[in-house]
């Protein structure tokens, strides 16, 4: 691993603006992801994203869907769904909107290079967020390739993204959920 010098604040601002401009141009996206916590793989699957808060996270055991106002968390193995009002911070690392637009507003931004990859570094400048530092690796197309969150209370969480499919005209029905017949429903709304 070759870590380069920190880039200037101007470079950091340009990098953040390039990331935001890229996501401004995306109507929808699907991307493969792998999430690990403290070095141990805990989750992998496909993330579908549309507009600000429409998400569909499909893994072997879970299906998490949000239409921007309601969230459905379906445990496939237990045939159980938890329905709740969408909370902007509930998707955490897998919320593109938060990573690209929300978190930077409450952070001091810097950047560096590592193995020819550009990395945005966000350190909170207030107590409104619960992490110590977020690092975002950007690929050559200004897309997220990896996100690492350091939080002293819980450790390090990392999500790697690969195989982007952009602007596929994903149907709005992909971001809605009807519980299967016979499933246990817990409605927290």
Distance between the termini: 47 Å
List segments where confidence is low: pLDDT < 50 over at least 5 consecutive residues. 1-5
Tally the helices: what do you get? 2
Helicity level: 10-25%
Give a brief outline of the structure.
The chain has 189 residues and is mainly beta. The chain contains 2 helices and 13 strands. The protein has one domain: Lipoprotein localisation LolA/LolB/LppX (outer membrane lipoprotein receptor (LolB), chain A, Clam), CATH 2.50.20.10.
Describe the structure.
Helices cover 14% and strands 51% of the residues. By secondary structure, it is mainly β. The protein has one domain (3-187): outer membrane lipoprotein receptor (LolB), chain A, CATH 2.50.20.10. The longest helix has 16 residues, at 9-24. Residues 1-5 have low confidence and may be disordered.
How are the elements arranged and paired?
Elements: E1 3-7, H1 9-24, E2 28-37, E3 40-50, E4 54-59, E5 62-67, E6 70-75, E7 80-85, H2 96-105, E8 107-114, E9 117-124, E10 133-138, E11 144-151, E12 155-166, E13 184-187
Parallel strand pairs: 7-13
Antiparallel strand pairs: 1-8, 2-3, 2-12, 3-4, 4-5, 5-6, 6-7, 8-9, 9-10, 10-11, 11-12
């Amino acid at each position: 691993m070759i870590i380069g010098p920190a880039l200037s604040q101007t470079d950091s601002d340009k990098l953040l603006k390039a990331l935001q401009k890229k996501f401004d141009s995306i109507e929808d996206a699907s991307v493969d992801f792998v999430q690990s916590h403290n070095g141990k793989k805990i989750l992998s699957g496909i993330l579908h994203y549309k507009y600000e808060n429409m998400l569909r996270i499909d893994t072997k055991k879970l299906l998490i869907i949000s239409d921007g106002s309601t969230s459905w968390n379906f445990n496939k193995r237990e045939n159980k769904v938890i329905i709740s009002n969408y909370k902007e911070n509930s998707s955490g690392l897998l919320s593109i909107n938060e990573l690209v637009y929300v978190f930077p507003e409450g952070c001091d931004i810097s950047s560096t290079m590592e193995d020819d990859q550009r990395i945005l570094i966000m350190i909170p400048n207030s107590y409104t967020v619960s992490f110590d530092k977020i690092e975002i690796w950007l690929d050559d197309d200004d897309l997220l390739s990896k996100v690492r969150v350091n939080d002293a209370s819980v450790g390090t969480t990392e999500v790697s993204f690969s195989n982007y499919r952009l602007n596929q005209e994903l149907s709005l029905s992909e971001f809605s959920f009807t519980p299967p017949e016979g499933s246990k429903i817990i409605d927290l709304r």
